[in-house]
Amino acid sequence: MRLHLLCGVFLIGLHSAAIAAHPKVQHSERKLNTLDPVSLQEVAAQELRYRLPSYIVPTHYKLYLETQVHTGNRSYSGSVDIHLDIRQQAKTIYVHQRGLRITSNELYASNPNTNLTFLETLRYTEDAEREFAVFAIRRALAPAPYVLHLDFEGELRVDDDGFYLSSYLDANGTRKYVASTQFQAISARAAFPCLDEPALKATVELGIKHHPSYKAVSNMPIFAEAGDLDGNVVTYFETTPRMSIYLLAFLVSDFLYTENEAAAQRVYARPNAINQTLYALEAGVRIMDALDEHIGLPYRSYMPKVDQVALTQFSAGAMENWGLCKYREEVLLFEPGVTTYRAQTTITTIIAHEYVHQWFGNVITNEWWSYLWLNEGFATLYEFLGADMAYPERQYRDLFNVQVVQRVLITDAAESTRPMTFSRGATFNAILSLFDNVAYSKGGSVLQMFRLLLPDAAWRQMLRTYVQGNEFGTVNTDNFVAALTEAFDGVVSLPEGTDVERFVHSWVNQAGYPVLEVRRSYRGEMILSQDRFYGNKIVNNDFTVWVIPYTMMEQGDAQDALFEWQWMTSKAVRVPSSTPNDEWILVNVNQTGFYRVNYDPSNWYMLIRTLLEDTAAIPMHSRAQLIDDSFHLARSNRLDLEIALELLGYVRHEREYPPWEAANRVLSYFHGRMRGQPDYILYELFVDTLIGDVFVTLDITTVAPDERLLEKYLRQVISSWACRMEIESCLTATRDALEREVFDAEPVHPDVSAVVYCYGLRTAPTVAFQYLFGKLLGSDNRGERQLLINALGCANDTEQLSSYLLAAIGGELQVNFNAEERLSILQSVLSSRQGVDALIEFLTENYTYVVSLLGPNALASLVQSIATSTNTLDEEQMLIALLEQLNSVLPASVSASARTTASINLAWPSTREGLLLRYFLERYNFQPVQSDTVLQPDA
What we know:
- The protein is α+β, with helices and mostly antiparallel strands and 939 residues long.
- The protein contains 28 helices and 30 strands.
- It comes from Anopheles arabiensis.
- The record marks 440 as: Transition state stabilizer.
């Protein structure tokens, strides 16, 4: 399952974080805003109370459902035969159910010839807290197979969970209804009574009765369709392989599909979006072919087909149901001339993520949610590798470090982070809380480290061993260790006293990650030491030890050399070194290991000199790593900030996207701190200097047909900063391009539209804002709508911003925005201080409407974002006045947190970090936009 970050709070063009997290992570984070940490601890301690007893094992479900969803009717009914293997004498049967009404039940004994013998109708009680139906048996059952038949009734949910109702507007503006499912993690029980734990795998036989104007689709191909006497149709599906019940999926709709019959793939969508499915079909076929070859266990040896479905309402973002992957429209549909390169990247990588799950998640499944990383880590890694194998010319794998590894290194440096293998309990919220960046991004990053220790052929053999040895079953860390041990045998030399189990457990069972300190004596040796890295402090009494693999490159080494793996297994060690004293060393080449590296100052300065004089002498991913590591080492007081800033200065010579993306995050952080300060002009000059030489080489409003994907990323980062710093040529170019679309019907290329629309609005006439707003109202493409929402939030005209914010809650313009779009509009204006001021004024007058439409969590999130953007005394007074106005609806904890955030921001200029940055800026004579200029200290 893949989660997608909303990018409304990011500046247009600087929002690459939006594709760094799976859509489900954002869904989980939104849900977690309501969690009480104390309650979470309590349910974790009582996990076994919520677990099914081990003596009851389901083997097969025969499920039948009846729905009249075509009318919008939420009521449905059904029956299920649950085939059970009772493994010890029992007088009680537990079945999960949530919000259903069981109308009748019958218990049968099942003999080897599949004959059923009626035993009794059972008395049962409901345990709503634990979501159990508990059936009491008059006479104890002997260990044997049984069948529990249940009739039940339910209502389609309206929260995009379980078996739920959604809708869309057709080409005539008529509302059409859809019944769909989302069962991960424990919501199959909300659709029908079942045993809803991932280890309890069973086969499923499904029939759905529905109106003949609609079609049903599920994991398996249709076996038969039969008309009923009442004029409805029953669709029967082939029996599934043995699988976890959360992977069952079905859809009842009037959707159409495009098809590649030879590849047994289809893409379903609402009829008025069916022309946007062709790229998803092409990418699906390419990616599946690539994964078949890479893994060596063809998908079709497990399942006969795979379908993809684009849904207008799907809070999970994307889901890997076996043979029926589901997605939100904006992460699956592609419209030529409208969809941007970033959106296409998201579509491609999400398809790869869900397709890799067909093996890692479906053929083999995490034994319990504490091992979720064994599902999501593989999917996160291969969303980039699989996409890259399908489209090698796009270099998708070059996005992995800057968009996955470096981002999770930030979040995993918190004291509150968790180990990869970890459980918080067995309730809905406790399990949902595990769908986080640790399971996804850290899981993928650590697996990447394991992968790169092996030759490619050995890694691929490990994948086959791992899957085949556990197919149709469930896995935990021990199963992975066993497969990796076999792969390492005779290939990877582990240090004495260390085996694969210790190596793997040091990464998956411990929270956080290390910083590897490299201190050269310049007398023929180095001292290596490791400590747990915290983002905000140094802890000297932390005795956590990781088994760290590392590579080392010396100045002058060829970048394509095979660097030998070495190992660090203790807190500190002395290592011989033959590197000349006037030459640098580089550890963790291309950031293959999941940790940070710090050096002594002399080595840092030698690296900086080379970056300035011969940038390409250091590998591209190492350049990005050096920027990222040095910045966060400085922020945690492990490195002098001046060293990090001097290293950052080299990027004026950088022409590749990954290092610039790392620099982008650094510049964004300091911009947030410096904006509004008296010497902000010095920071503007600094940024102008860094981007100037690259900016003058770019055409920021046109796209060449043969342009590389990474060149598009680079242009968006640079042009966003150029316009943000109000470089006149940037603002003029974007305004002119926008006006050509408005007045001359010359469309802006989608790959530059984010920057052109956002910054073009800053100086364009009012008619341009009206044009883009009209374009938003007329679009039914969810991806384009989100881009336009973000762009309109860039306006700096007070009246435009006020009208736009009112549109989010209705105002005079009764616009049919959904709730998510309404929140995105409110978030979009946070891209500028003018927008923040407009939002404060809007909330002061309209907070009751925001709460009623979007809920109290949305208001709290907006207030916290305003506090984050508060840098001056005047801005603080505006925040305080807003908090006083919201006193009756805002929790005291939110108000206190906002005040604290603002206080920290105002105090920043007098902190060590603030003073060092200003000292650095004052000492340099910056000369922007001169190709031969190098940063030089003032005399």
